[in-house]
Amino acid sequence: MRFEIMRLDEVDGTPVDSTVVDAASVNRIVQQAAAIGQRLWIRPAETTVL
Fold this sequence. Notes:
By secondary structure, the protein is of the alpha+beta class.
């Protein structure tokens, strides 16, 4: 499963940038954000059906 992780603005909480990662990478990114006090929004990435 893949997740979209959005970094949020410190002042108003609006998304600043985003990236899509696999489930194995989510924990590492969350740990890094927690270490510096960064706010994140994590949601399942949209999948496209061919």
